[in-house]
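Researcher: Next entry in the queue.
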Amino acid sequence: MKKYFLPALFVIFALISNLYFGQNRIPNSSSVIKENLDYPFGTLVKLKVEIVDGTDLKLKAMEGRYLIKIKEVNDIPADKPFIMEFVDDSGEFPTEHFSLYKKLYKIEAEHDFSLDDIKKMQKYYVGRTFIVLAYETGKFVGTPNESDYVRKKVNLPRLMRQDVSFQFKNYLVIDSKLKD
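Model: Structure for this entry, 180 residues:
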């Protein structure tokens, strides 16, 4: 009996300490990384999307970018269409003005664009609806500076900068265009 007591005690201690100190525990946090599409990250889904001009959102960070409004997921209409940023792996969907120019005119832009130039290009892209295969993923963005070490040992004014708070940002990766 004594022979099994210490190993059993060790196993129980290890399980309890793993539950309490394990990596899945985030102290003082109620944040959960969640998908916007209600499918696990990395799952290819069929989407009906509309191209949106980021400037229309009146957010400085989205000016000059194109985003997508998701209308359907796997042929099921979204309760409320929502907008997401995207990365294009298909080569079919420009994410900003210069890549739209290259897609439309088949050459690199050699100068900046006037507002009229942008409006002309957008006629062929913004507001159009497409059916695509895509998957949701994400990344951490911002500057994490909430650790005790940073607060006590690092010169905080040097770290202060205009940036987004440290957070997880979801986005879509477009794999292929199925049809317009």
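Model: The chain has one domain: 32-141+162-179.
Researcher: Noted, moving on.
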